[in-house]
Amino acid sequence: MIRYSIIVFSVLALCSCCAAQARAQGLTPAPLDLGPGGTGPGSAGPAAQPASAEPVDELAAPDESAPASPDAAPATTTTAFARGSGHYFNWIKMLATWLFFLVWVRTTDWVSTDCQDHRLQYVRWNPIVFGTFIGFYFLLWLLPWFWLGFPLLVVSYFVPLTMYIAYRNQQVPESQKVLTRSHLRYCLASMVNRLGGHMEEEKRAAWEKGPPIKFDATGAATERDDRAHLLAARQLEHFNEARGAVAEMLQRRASAMMWDFSQQSVTVRYMIDGVWHNDDPKEREKTDPALEVLKVLCGLNPEERQQRQDGRFLINYGGIDYKAALTSQATQTGERVVIQVETENVQFKTLDDLGMRPKMQEQLIQLLNGKQGFVLFSAMPANGLRSTTKVTLHKTDRFTREFLAAEDEANPYEHVENIPVSFFRLGDNVPEAKQIDKVLVRMFRMEPDVIVMRDLVNGEVVSLLCDRAVDGELVIGTIRAKDCAEALLRVLALKVPPKAFAKAVTAVLNQRLIRKLCETCKEAYEPTPQILQQLGIPAGRIQAFYRPPQEPEKVCPDCGGIGYRGRTAVFELMIVDDAIRRLVATGAKTDDIRLAARKAGMQNFQTEGLLLVAKGITSLQELTRVLKQ
């Protein structure tokens, strides 16, 4: 919001300049020249005399010897004054004010972004930096003395900015402090080098060398403990080995890395696009110190190799922020360590990016535009449920309809504009204001049009949501399941009354992620008639299928020899009709629900996946793998 406010005030300031110039140039009406006793131009009264042809010296001294007439009007004196070429407008002062305003725009935007990056109470600092300057900026236009107003404006700029810099330098590591001696030298050296000069920048610390990756600690009880863990990890000798190992994982596009320690070596595996791939083993002499660094960074005990340990840390690689989770546990051969990473922001923007067909998009949006009902999103773990839910919420009308969301405080989701979130807590000894039933009651009193409940906590909560879905509100929820039929039964497994849920639910969306063939190295082949017959594809309709290269001459630089790069989603959308409702109300089996959905016209995963195979997006082997999950 601070950026939008800055833009608005920039436009207002520019408009005020133009308005001042317009008034100065024109074109304020001149004062009326009233004659004696007159009321307007040219009204000289009955005693008006004809104009003399003789030139009159307006500044001539009056004739003191002439007797004053008792009926004469009082004499008026006109005083001449000098006016500059700029009228009431001084271009130099205006230019100085405007340039100073632009400097403030740049630094204020930096303060807003920096606050959010370092979690430094941007709600507190944005009004201080923004409001103080804007108040004195308008005061500058009201004061008639420029050399009083402009110094006050300068003070209103530097004081809040200096206060913020002093505060943030106490909260961030030494390497991230600004306006210090090393920071100023770095800025000067960067400027000189960009201009073609050669100036050595400050010497980087040992932990800054190596790959362009940064670590940060998180998950401790306090921020001070997090900083202590980070400093302790940096002081270890093999800190850069740990950075290099994690950087290699991200360079390979892996979402997870597994280290299996044995007495002689360490087996390394990467999960790339949802599939584990083996890599060359590593020596324990290098991997053990790297694991020690990561455990210290997470606040774990590096000497403990038997008990299970879990920790978290943050990564910035290539300008992208990641959340990382580390898990270590003893095995029969030694110890197994798994490092999982995920981006903080959803990378997809539209349903097209996710791979949903346009016809299914229309059906889904129509359901979400309904006035009531229960729309359930579902997927197996690590199959893109969070991304699809967020992208779909962005497609809804959140401006004319009121949305409210409830989320677990320990598991928040990425914010969606115009969807206010109420946070609750689970467990014992929860304050009354944070109890989930109290949070929902407050939401219901506001009578929103749409309620978003990402995590269906228990049957009692779902029952309350079902009542709202029947009474004229739309409810959006998510659950983990392998298909639409299983999603319905998993909700019932929360001990929700079957009849109440069957009456409320209107649709279920489920998805699975499937790998896409590498466009650089995929190869075409002609499918056999037997395969086409098994798939139900008429002969001659498909000329070729695609697959990874069988005998590549060299390793593909884009996919690293895997044959696949990236993933897309395959969807199935179940629109709940009366037949499916009867099955849900009686607690029928998943096979019966699937059969009823097929009779109602639902396209299942196999049908949707074959379309991707026919288009050459994925391979038949990959579709078979996904369907077996």
Topology, pairings included?
Blueprint: H1 2-27, H2 91-118, H3 122-142, H4 146-171, H5 181-194, E1 213-217, H6 223-234, H7 239-251, E2 254-261, E3 265-272, E4 275-278, E5 282-283, H8 284-297, E6 309-317, E7 320-330, E8 335-343, H9 351-354, H10 358-368, E9 373-379, H11 385-395, E10 403-408, E11 421-424, H12 436-445, E12 450-455, H13 459-470, E13 474-480, H14 484-492, H15 498-504, E14 505-517, E15 523-525, H16 529-535, E16 545-547, E17 564-575, H17 578-585, H18 590-599, H19 605-614, H20 620-627
Parallel strand pairs: 9-13, 9-14, 10-11, 10-12, 12-13
Antiparallel strand pairs: 1-6, 2-3, 2-8, 3-4, 3-5, 6-7, 7-8, 14-17, 15-16
Helix pairs in contact: 1-2, 2-3, 2-4, 3-4, 6-8, 7-8, 13-15, 14-18, 15-17, 17-18
Task: Summarize the entry for a quick read.
The chain has helices at residues 2-27, 91-118, 122-142, 146-171, 181-194, 223-234, 239-251, 284-297, 351-354, 358-368, 385-395, 436-445, 459-470, 484-492, 498-504, 529-535, 578-585, 590-599, 605-614, 620-627, and strands at residues 213-217, 254-261, 265-272, 275-278, 282-283, 309-317, 320-330, 335-343, 373-379, 403-408, 421-424, 450-455, 474-480, 505-517, 523-525, 545-547, 564-575. The protein is an alpha/beta fold. It has three domains: 2-22 and 87-172, no CATH class; 208-343, 2-Layer Sandwich (Beta-Lactamase), CATH 3.30.450; 351-627, Rossmann fold (3-Layer(aba) Sandwich), CATH 3.40.50.
